[in-house]
Every structure is written in structure tokens, then in C-alpha cells.
Amino acid sequence: MPMTISEKILAAHCGRQEVKPGDLVLADVDIALGNDITAPIAIREFKEAGGKKVWDKDKVVLVPDHFTPNKDIASAEQAKILRDFSEEQGISHYYEVGKMGIEHALLPEQGVVSPGDLIIGADSHTCTYGALGAFSTGVGSTDLAGAMLTGQVWFRVPESMLFTLKGRLSRWVSGKDLILMIIGDIGVSGARYRSMEFRGETIDSLSMEARLALCNMAIEAGAKNGIIVPDGITAAYVQGRMERPAVNFESDVDAVYMKEKEYDISALEPQVAAPHLPENSKAVSAYKDVKIDQVVIGSCTNGRLEDMEEAHSILKGRKVAKGVRLVVIPATQDVFQEMAVRGLMNDLVESGAAVSTPTCGPCLGGHMGVLAEGERALATTNRNFVGRMGHPKSEVYLSNPAVAAASAVTGIISHPDEVVGKKTVAGR
Amino acid sequence: MSYKGKCWKFGDNINTDEIIPARYLNTSDPDELAAHVMEDADAEFVKKMTAGDIIVAGPNFGCGSSREHAPIAIKAVGISCVVAESFARIFYRNAFNIGLPIFESPEAVAAIKQGDEIEVDEKKGVITVTGDGEYRATEYPEFMRQLIAAGGLMSYLKKR
Question: To pair with A206 at 20 to 30 A between CA atoms, which of A276, B31, B76, B120?
């Protein structure tokens, strides 16, 4: 029977020749991930179930990234649960503050996840690793507890949807814009329970960092996973990083998709999603005089080096507009260091940016840039739900890093072309 | 098992940030979480509801974050079950895994009005709206029934 890449990976991890959509399978996972919000519950469940030793100390990954460096006493207690458990269990992939990064930027960068893996994470954006050709999906704390105990998780094999993208990306358009456009088309539940597979000439030439941003937001369409068949770009990215060898799966030519969508993205403009759902995406030029109080550039979606370079290319030599706060959060220590080494950090500070150590922080209204009542932010993050970044009466717009940087300079939601070419705008 | 209670009706795509805002996720204590359940969808919800009441919502209930704090808070505040047109997948897993009863029935949701009394018969999968009629909930797969019978994932795993 022909299978998709997602079906092949699931079959390979439950010892079967084939699986089909709708099958319930108990599968062996390669990596089980938790963070400072979700892992404390998993650890409690693990202990209450009589757990003594995790199934594999090298395959359980714990990253305190959401409210760290600890934002308050209660968060410090949560983070301590991870630290103590990691020490007790000898967890090899525990990342302390100072080594830590936002989990979904950190794991691919450090080579912890590989093509062909089956990965679960108690974090919805675990779907990011599909960019490497892994089957990777978000679960809750109890599923993580079960995996820590047994190394296995139950899955319903999802139907697959195929998204074929054709055309060359225009300047200032990135992986983020592709996924915002797709979510705008199919809606926040348009891929609910499904696998989203991306292919086509646009994907073939898309950088790994942009692919990671693309797959990262599959969950915002309700998907179980997002995935791209590994190719030369994948091989080049993982070479020299991976802890385990890649297993490259590909979809059969006659694999069955419950839905196929094709897009020509040649004329696609940078996208901006208005409050309060990611599906409210429109071309940036559709927004007129939308004044912003804060810009956040970072997160598991857009906190990688390429994102920082894109933002830097606009901010260098320009000033953040009066009345706007720009918070830049490199997603990992390596990104942070590279920005320092290459001089990006200095230029951003000159622009008036506040640059933070890695953290999920403001993306979920945790810390490092929480919004007051009535305030409006433009962020390179992934969700713009009610109250997501702070007060329930604040607003979040979503965009790529170039649009975010340009808008920080003008103070209103702006196309990068409106800024590039002008040396200073509304300096302070 | 059946659940009888007053309905609190919510809209479409109720996400986990509305069910339990992240500003309260510096704890995983069920009672502390329960004090803020549904706060960003209805700030007065906890004051207005009573134990045994039922949450009714449109499609894609529980979308967004994977936080299990969402079904934990709903369960801890005393909501007996959730009836929705459909559920987001991580929330769906989490609810079964922790033993929060949930039912999918677009027809029932369309019929139920804010404040209606309803009764949900878990075994038969029938939702009775007082003064209106009966509606069927989508049947669970066999494996999910085993999870429910065991009282959640961890007790299911312990039994195996």
C-alpha cells in the first residue's frame, strides 16, 4: 500500500509494514520533550504512577524555557522541579539557563532531533521538527509522563493534506508568510487532526530556518504535524550536528491525501495576522495606520539567526520610533553569541532595541514584555489569542521579522520597502 | 455514568489561553488553576458557575497550547463534562488522559441555549436537552473507551 512520509514514520515506530489513517497505534518514540510549564505535571504523574527510572535518560529532553530566567518565586519552584529531576535521573539533555534556548529552536540546532524520528513534546509547537523530515507532535503532560515511563505513546494515524507551493518568494517574504497565508486560507481548524505535508519548488529552495518556521505553525491550523520530505538542504543542515543517524523517508508517488492544495506564491506579500486568531492574515499593505506600542522579534517561530539577520538588515542605522518598545529575543545561546560576534547586537542596541537572553517570555504573556490594557503589539510569535501577551484587552498582530523590524522604525504596521532606503525615521 | 447540569455556552475556537491564561501557569496546583478557569473568555465565570455545571462550546474547543492545565482547571473547578461541536486534538487527548469527560455533538450544541439544563448519558452517548430533545454524541474509538474505563492514561498504563 502506498504511504505518505508521516504514515511511513509511524509504521516504522510501531513495528508494522504499513499503517493507514484512522489506525490507533502504540509507537516507540525517539525523543520525549518537556518544559518548565508542562514537565512539572508530567514528573508528578510519573512519580505517582510509581516511576523510578525514566525509560531512557538520553531520550527524555527537559528545557526550562518559558518563564526562565525565573520570573517569580512560583516559576522558580517549577524550574527547580526540572533541575532536581534531571539530576536524579541523569537526564543528558537538560539545558540550564546559560545553555538553554527556546526548545524548538534549540533541539534542531543542537542535533537532538533527526530526520525519520518520532518525537513527542509536551508543547504544542513540537510540530516544528517536521521541517527535518521527522514526525513530531505536541501532546500534554500525561502523555509525556507515559512516555517517560514506557517510551511509548498512542497515536491515531492522521489523514494527510498536501500543500504544494510554486513560485519564487519576493524580497521580505519568508516561511512565516507561507504558513500565515495557508492558515488564512484553511482556517485555524482547517487541518484539525491532520498531517500537513509541504512540497513544491518554493519549498525546494526554502532555507531550513524558514522551513522550521513554516512547520512550527502547523498547529495553528489544528494539525497534528507538519512535515517536509528531507532533501539536500536537510542533509546540509543536519550534517555535523546530529547525535543519531538520519533515516530519510519520502512519500510514495501514489500516496493518498485527503485534500490537496496548490498555491502560486510569486506575488505573495508579507502577511500580517490581526487579532485574535492566526487565520486573520492579510497582506501587510492592507493595514493602514495601525499604531503599535511594542514589537517583539523572537520565539520558537522566528528567533533564529536568519530571522535576526533579516531584522538587523532593516534596523541597522535606523532608530526605533518614539513611543515604541522593541524587544529582541534570540532563541538560543548560540544565536545570541553569533549576534554578538557578528556585531548585530551592537547595531540593534544602537537602534534602541532591548535585547534579551533566550526565553519564550512575552510570546505567552509570561515576562520580558507583557502588555498593558489597550496596548497593541506586533510580534514574530505564533499566536494572537485574547490576552496572549498580557492584558485581556491588549492586542497582538503576527508578522515575519522584516515587517516587525520595519514597523518598529515607523511605529505603525509597515512594509519593509517603506523603510529601506530612508536612513532615519522618527529618531528619538 | 451520567452528568446533569446547567449549561454555560461559549463560542468557536475557545483556546487554552482563554481557558487558563499563561499568567497563571507558574503553578500546576489544580485548585489554584481552578480559581481562574475560563477567565479570559468570561471574567466572572468562576463566580457564576456551580459544581456539576456543563461547558458547551462551538468547534475546535481547546485549540492552541498543549497545556494540560486547561482540562485540569475545568475538572478541578467542578465542571462535570464538556460538550462541543469538536475539540482540538491535544485538548482531546489531554481530557481523556486525565479523565475529564468530553462529548462531541454539533446537533446538541446547536440546540442548547445558555442556561439550559441537560443530561449526558456517557454510556449511551445521548445528550438530553430538557424541554427539547435527545441528541447523539460521536462514539469514541474502543481504545478511548478503555482509557475512560481505567480512569485515565496513567492508571491504564499501571493496569497493563
Answer: A276
pLDDT under 50: residue ranges of chain B: none
CATH code of A396's domain = 3.30.499.10
Antiparallel, parallel or unpaired: β B81-84 and B102-104: parallel
Q: What is the pLDDT of residues B102-135, one digit of tens each?
A: 999 999 999 999 999 999 999 899 999 999 999 9
Instruction: Provide, for chain A, the percentages of residues in helix, strand and coil under a 3-state DSSP scheme, each rounded to the nearest 5.
Output: 35, 20, 45
* In A299-402, beta strands by DSSP E: 325-328, 353-355, 376-379, 395-398
- A188 contacts B63? CB cut-off 8 A: yes
For residue A365, which phi and psi values (nearest 5 degrees)?
Answer: 70, 30
Question: A10 with A82, same domain?
Answer: yes
A156 chain-B contacts, CB cut-off 8 A: 141
Give me the residues paired with residue A135 across strands.
A118
Residue at a domain's end among A201, A235, A263: A263
- Residues in chain A with CB shorter than 8 Å from the CB of B157 are 49, 146, 149-150
Strands (E), chain B: 2-9, 54-57, 81-84, 102-104, 117-121, 126-129, 133-136
A292, containing H or E segment: none
Q: Considering only CA atoms, which of A159, A157, A126 is closest in space to residue A140?
A: A126
- Residue A428 maps to a domain: no
Both A98 and A231 in a single domain? yes
**Are residue A215 and residue A353 in the same domain, yes or no?**
no
Question: Measured at the alpha carbon of residue A307, what is the angle toward residues A207 and A267, in degrees to the nearest 5?
Answer: 65
Q: What cell does A425 get?
A: 525615521
Nearest CB partner across the interface for B26, out of A72, A383, A385: A72
Q: Average pLDDT of chain B?
A: 95
Q: Which of A41, A124, A277 sits opposite B65 (nearest CB)?
A: A124
Q: Give the separation between CA B148 and CA B107, rounded to whole angstroms.
A: 23
CATH class of B2-159: alpha beta
Inter-chain touch B90–A24, beta carbons under 8 Å? no
Cβ neighbours of residue A80 under 8 Å, at least 6 residues apart? none
In terms of DSSP bridges, do strands A271-273 and A281-283 run parallel, antiparallel, or are they unpaired?
A: antiparallel
Give the Å distances, CA to CA, from B154 to A62, A68, B99, B102. Answer: 20, 29, 10, 18
pLDDT tier at A422, thresholds 50, 70, 90: low
Between A337 and A428, name the one with better pLDDT.
A337
Cβ pair A22, A156 in contact under 8 A:
yes
**Distance set, CA A167 to CA A170, A206, A262 (Å):** 9, 11, 11
> How do residues A387-416 score in pLDDT, each as one tens digit?
999 999 999 999 999 999 999 999 999 999
β-sheet bridge partners, residue A294: A325, A377
Contact assignment for B66 to A146 by CB distance below 8 Å: no
Asked if A37 and B25 touch (Cβ cutoff 8 Å), the reply is yes
Provide the residue range defining the domain that includes A51: 5-263
